[in-house]
């Protein structure tokens, strides 16, 4: 596999935010989102075996691990990696942009699926069949830059998701949309979506040494 980085930190996103987590950042991505904060993982990477990844993750001694990117499903070996992590008794999250079939992932993994909003520049990338392949424990994320993104996401949620049946995350683009403004919109709508902040960016503001992780 091609690995961009392997590190441990606090989980910054999803309903698992705040937990210590091992991160496997795989290299390679098929999208080029305008606000991408991991451009270093879009290509390149170090060739590494699944066995070596398992060994390094095991050295951290953590029970939560996230496979991210780049786009992890860009690499065909990712389901095998996820299965191997699960076999070790780990809780496995997979952060994906939703442009690949998520049904290739083992059912025990938690897919965190990003539906790209218009301001991302990749609005048409989502594979809509994935909506029917979500499991109850999977999560849907919308990264929101402005009111247009919010209204677009709100329409998608109302049209394609049943209230309370799926975890819906609304995440403001750091430095572009204030969390307070997004909360105001959620309250006005009586939305059942959940606010998500990128916790790691508040602990390690962009520009600090750990911010790159």
Please characterize this protein's 3D structure.
The protein has 213 residues and is of the alpha/beta class. The chain contains 5 helices and 9 strands; from the N terminus they run E-E-E-H-E-H-E-E-E-H-E-H-E-H. Helix 2 links the parallel strand 4 and strand 5. The radius of gyration is 17 Å and the shape is globular. The mean pLDDT is 94.
Biggest sheet layout: 9 strands, mixed
Strand content: 15-25%
Structural class: alpha/beta
Which sequence of SSEs, written as H and E, runs from N to C?
A: EEEHEHEEEHEHEH
Terminus-to-terminus distance = 19 Å
Order of adjacent strands in the largest pleated sheet: 3-1-2-4-5-6-7-8-9
Taken from the alpha-carbon principal axes, the silhouette is globular
